[in-house]
Amino acid sequence: MIFSDTWWGWLLNYLIVFTSGGLFCLLAQVLIIKTKLTPARILVLFLIAGIILQAIGVYEPISEVLRSGIAIPITGFGASLAKGSIEWAMQYGPLGAFAGGLVQTAYGVGIAVFASYIVSLIFKPKSK
Asked: Which of 44, 85, 119, 121 is the most buried (most CB within 10 A)?
C-alpha cells in the first residue's frame, strides 16, 4: 500500500513501517520478559514465522501493508528463504528446494559478511 507523494503520504508510510517494526520488537521483548525463551530462540521463532507465512501465501499481502516493518526483521529473511526454496523446487525438483533458499538470500548474506569484515577492520573486536 503506497500512499501519494504528498508530505502526509510519506509521513503515513513511515508511520506504518515504524509502528509495525516496533510491534515486532514489542512482541520479542514481551517474549523475553514473560517466558524463559532466550533471544536466540526468539530469533529462530521469527525466522520460522516468516517461512510459514511465505509458505501459506500470506506474507506478500501482509508485506504490501506493513512494507519494511515486516521485511527488515528476521521474518523477511525467513520469507526469502522459503520463496527461493519454493521457486527452485518447482523448477528443478526436490534438490532445487535446498539450493533455492541459498541463491535467494546469497546477496544479503554476502553483504552482511563483507560489512562485518569492514567493521572488524575499523574497530578492534574483543571476545568476552
From this structure: 85
